[in-house]
Each structure stands twice: as C-alpha cells, then as structure tokens.
Amino acid sequence: MNNEIGKILVVDDIVENCDILKIRMEKVGYDVDTETDSNQAIDRLRASEYDLVLLDINMPGTSGITLLEQIRGDEAFDSVAVIMITAIDDVQVALDCMRKGACGYLTKPFNIDQIRQQINNCFKRVTEKQVSGAAGA
Hints:
The chain has helices spanning 15-27, 38-47, 64-72, 91-99, 112-136; strands spanning 7-11, 31-35, 52-56, 81-86, 104-107. By secondary structure, it is of the alpha/beta class.
C-alpha cells in the first residue's frame, strides 16, 4: 500500500473506467474500491474510511458535482480529499469544482503519473489542513 494514501474510492458510472483505474492504481500500490452509482457512493463512504475519492462529473441521477457538494457538506468527510475526473475540459467547470471543495481536476484521458501527482498534491493539502487545525486547537 502507498504510504501517503490509505484507501481510495473511484466513482464513475462506466464500469470499464472504474476497472481500468482500479487496476492501474493497484499496480502502483494504492488500495482501491469502485462504485458506479453516486447514491451508493455516499453509503460506501459512510461504511468505510477513505482518504480520497476520484469522482466522475457526468453521471446519471446524482451528478459528480452534487456528490462533491454532499461530501463537502458533511463534516464526517472533512479529511477525505476529492479529485474530479471528467471528459469536460472546461476551465469554468474546473474552477467551480475547486470552489466547491475539490482538491484536483483531471480531464480524460489521463495517465497514472497525472493521477499520482494530483493525489500527492491533495494529500499535502489535507495534511497541512490537519496540522494547522491541530495547531489552532
């Protein structure tokens, strides 16, 4: 397992995308679960401790952006980092996601090095937030 991130949840309505991400990320040492339904993703987040969510934006039913808002709106998930993954290459959508609490935004197709870099950046931010929160306590 990777030392920085314990457990990752990939949420994408396309099973093949989940499978590809899971295989690629497990090869480099991450512990990965997948979910194809955004509503079930919240249940899975509540049932297990995750450090990071890779979240597709365009999904039927509850969109990835709505799910991001639910995650950021629940203090139980304060330490969970979220990286948005999408085929939408739009700066405004990316900025909106960042304003809503995503710590990263990747456009498809992407490679494992891009994912690892985003994960490392997000983990640094979460760690810094936890350290500064503990210092203020």
